[in-house]
Amino acid sequence: MEKQRSDVISSIRGCLISTKGKIPLRQLEKDYRTLIGERIPYQKVGFKSLTDFIDSVPTLVLSEQNGELYVDAKINSKSAHISEMVCKQKTGKNKVFRNSVPPPRFSSLPPRNWRPKYVQKNTSYQTTSRPKAVSHNQFVDRSSYSAPSVPSKIVIPESSSFGKTVKKTDLSNRLLPKPESTSSAQNNYTNRHAPAQNGTSKKDNHEVSNHNSNTNRVLRRVEFNIPSSSQNESTSTSARAQSQTKPEINSTPNGFTSTRMNICQKMSEINLDRDSGNSSPISEFGQHIANGGNTSPLKMAGAFSPNIALVDRIIAPKVTVQPTSTGNPMTDLRNFAEFHKMGEVESTSKRVKTKQNHFWSSKIKIGKHTYASYPEEFADAASAEKHCAKEALKDLESKYGRRKSLLLSGQKEILERIPPMLEKHNNGIWVWQLQEDYTDKYNEQLPSDWLKIIDSSPGIQVEKFQSSYIIKHCRPEDILQKGGMRGTFMHISNVSVPSNTVQLSADGSVQGEVTCVMAANEVWCRQCNTEESNQHIEAMGRMELYYARNHASLKPDNITKNCYYAAEYEGTWFRVRVLETNETEVMCFLIDFGEEIAIPRKNIYQLKREFATSQAQAFVCRLIGLEVLYEFSLNSEILHDMLLYKQVQLELAPDTAVENDLCLPVYMYDVDGKSINEQLITLLTIESATPAISKDGVATQVYVSNIESNGDVYVQVHSHGFDVLLNRLEELEAEVRANPPTHLVSPVTKAYSNGVTFLAQYKTDRHWYRIQVIDWSPKEDLAQIYFLDYGNTDVINVNEEIMYPLHKLDDVLNQYPPQAVRVRMDLETIPDDFVDLATKAMPNDQPVLIRLTGKEEDNLPLAEFFRRDPDGGLFCVNMSISMEAKLKKENQSPRKKLHIDGTNVPSGGKLSCPALPEMGTYMMVHVPFAVNPYNFFVQPFESQDKLNKMMEKLQERYKDVVYSPLQIDQIIPGNIYASKFDDGHWYRTTAIKVINSGSISVFYCDFGYYSTLTVQQLIPLDVEFMELPYQALKAKHGGIKPKQSKWTMDDCDYFKQLVEKKTFYSVLLSKEKDELYDSDFVLSLMLVDTSSTEDKLITKELIDKGVAVKG
To answer: Which positions fall inside the HTH OST-type domain (predicted)?
Structure first.
């Protein structure tokens, strides 16, 4: 659907850009149908009305004027110069297009800290749609960087430096485990809502991380509040409240504070590998304090005398000892479930019968967790249950771990640590996952009332969802509405993956690897050689092994948009976020690579928490200095080949950031320090100069540069690269004129000229152009040259002309592709005067629309051309040329030649008159239309069948016609055309008088109705529809006259009701000349109604009604 929507928008813009300003909405609908052959399919792309669809397109503007809707196109970099030219167009003199804007200057040796010469700070560019859809709100850590900030968030800092070059690897290999990094991170958080300092605006939402706050962390008052069965929540909360009212301990070292420092040091050293889970981590310290400090084997920092007031502040916690292993998997599993309060362990075993043998399988259910021994087979139930219990215990220990009895975090630490953790989860996080992540990160437990503590923070929102809680960091603009933000969590995943943190080094740079390339303003990277990235690679290695063995038991109950999952793609496992789903596939965003891939639903699995702890690795950036090339770089092959999977150095460019910028503005360097931005300016400009004409039926706006007599048409696409090419040619021409490089001139020979591009002068206008030699005379003195950018040819004497090898003058200019694209106009036959007709229809200074329709046998594209007439209507040039050639051929034939004075045209035009009976005889007629007794039309009843058959064929023949190929000078009074009436049917129509292209008097010659049409509404009529004579005969009722001086409105209404759409017998009284139209006659008839048992004379009916009298 998105592809169809894009094609529709492109076609609409094609209709709009070539106009002088906005056009009515109805005109746009007509032009679109002319161009594409169907109405604008707004319903197929998901909209209820055309106005809703146009409103949804950022590059289209809908406005109302005098009660009518108008549509206009916003100008982008591709169409700016085209629209400007269209606005300045004047009929008559042709112009040569040359852009006066100076081209960018290219340096062959970029400096290490390259900057664009023309800094485009105020450049307006349209971001790609993908970052909006897949962005995971990346962060920037500037803890070591003091340069001006960018509009992005700053969180936990980590060290980062530009390491050694890593060899290019494929997507699968880059997930293999690597050696663990030994670098560490110092973590802290500063309230992001605090007043801005150091001149930083609050508007930018910037913060500076502080590395020194952990000095106070060791001196904090430790509060033990580990909940147990004998300890209720209200008691512990009350105890904490009382302790908080006591004075703080100062920072002077003493025995007690030294002891506490040892406690903290000891707790930070404890890990799962060293601790069995059976001992209390503070037992020796608690005993030391209880004994007055005399039994401790530890050395104190200074003399220590126990202080009872201080000792009272430390309460030995009641520790629940974790069960030890018994060697029986089922017993250990039950003890584990009881310790973690997971509920009863339900175990069932069953015997399975197969064709070959019998085996046992076991199934264990613990709360929400279910495990099975399948596909393993066992000879007895006990073995199956034992194996299943082992697997269940192994999985549960990896999820819940053998938690040690840890210190409880205090209120200050909770309020400091949790907000930055939450800020990385856009849509919120489940409480259970946050608790697990917190314990893993800080090696401390949260107290039982931690939710109440964190909910007191103005930047945190806690909401109950189903049977648990979701917690989320509030945006600054939502803080005042806290408590009223129900339903703001969107889709909450079973697990949430932290957002990416871009970590800047001291010089504001980042080492990364490019993982996905969409455009110059959408380059996805991942950081390399940081502690976090190395840990992530190790975690992904474990993930590969885990899911290879256990994926069968991890099928999700449902797949929800915006939620996180594990996905298997081409033999490799990835972390993904779901973008869209259907019955068979899931559109996934690979959060660690930036790719967007469709993956079968069967390959989507639950993402385990232990593999969701590392942040999303991919972040998106845009290249500075390439703003004008953003649109052209979409799906660029050069950009893709130059960047993908390459190691790069990124340097932040904060001074170029714009509001709501989803992409980091960067300068990018390769591992040798060369500026990638600068290299790409040249390469992408050349690539953007490659003329691109859509091959999928979508119209492209072009300029015609040359027309050949065989039907070949050369067109140019005026892109950004085309403009740069022309500007550089102008500069080069000025340089050559001012200082001719005669040292570059050498004899041009047949052997030397093959494939060489020259700069040569055109004899007609004396300007210099790019040319190639395509043919030689036998003596090799004359050569036929081809103008690469215009498509025309010329013959020159090579001994008399100066030709500079372009690669010696300007090698970059030499690399530009030819700008003239050769197509063939799609015509049945090429008229002899094709060049004149096509040049008249398509002036080279006015844009036309081209649509490819197929290919010739020689693989040359066939094309239809469309252009606007002076009144703004869109017409098909192909049909116009065909019709004009056909009319000329018909007019040159004496047999068909008919000269009719436009002021004296019969209503039947060139059609013959129906056969009439003799005077005084009967004639059966049908009345299709009536005005009054002196003005109505009749059709000969005897030819009604022929008329009906002709009308059926006419509808079938013209049902798919949507535009007219005719121009105003092709409308000839007296000619018969086809036109569609308001009822949607096609009728034969006589052109009576041409006033202008928007007003042509016509007559519907078979049904007796005059009207006014535009030239776009008249379609050439095929010869086979000219055989039947015109059927509408003018008539008046004889033998009567109006009772009043003239027929009144009531008289007219009564007569219409009496005769219209009915069949009568009539007597032909006379044949008179029409007073209004000299070329027409009027039949005087007496109508008789024979439809009832008694015949009725219409004369008598009119007289009896008082409408008429005998006359």
So the answer is: 4-75
Cβ(1063)–Cβ(942) under 8 Å?
A: no
Query: How high is the pLDDT of residue 417?
Result: 84
> Over 90: is that where the pLDDT of 218 sits?
no
* β-pair partners for 851: 864
pLDDT at 576: 93
Architecture of the domain delimited by 725-817: Roll (2.30)
d(CA 585, CA 441): 36
Name the fold adopted by 129-164+503-601+617-687: SH3 type barrels. (2.30.30)
First to last CA, the chain: 72
The CATH code for residues 329-393 is 3.30.160.20
Closest CA to 312 of 406, 407, 246, 218: 246
Residue 732 clears pLDDT 70, i.e. is over it: yes
Examine the pLDDT at 122 and tell me if it is beyond 80.
no
Q: What number does CATH give the domain 922-1108?
A: 2.30.30.140
0.70 exceeded by the pTM?
Answer: no
Task: Give me the CATH topology for the region 2-74.
Answer: Nucleotidyltransferase; domain 5 (3.30.420)
Residues 6+ apart with CB under 8 A from 548: 573
334 vs 192, higher pLDDT:
334
Q: Which pairs from 827-834 meet CB under 8 Å and 24+ separation?
A: 827/711, 827/878, 827/881, 827/882, 828/882, 829/885, 830/709, 830/710, 830/711, 831/881, 831/884, 831/885, 833/885, 834/707, 834/709, 834/711, 834/881
Domain with CATH 2.30.30.140 in the chain: 129-164+503-601+617-687, 725-817, 922-1108
Report residue 305: phi and psi, to 5°.
Answer: -115, 125
Question: How confident is the model over 689-698, as pLDDT tens digits?
Answer: 889 888 777 8
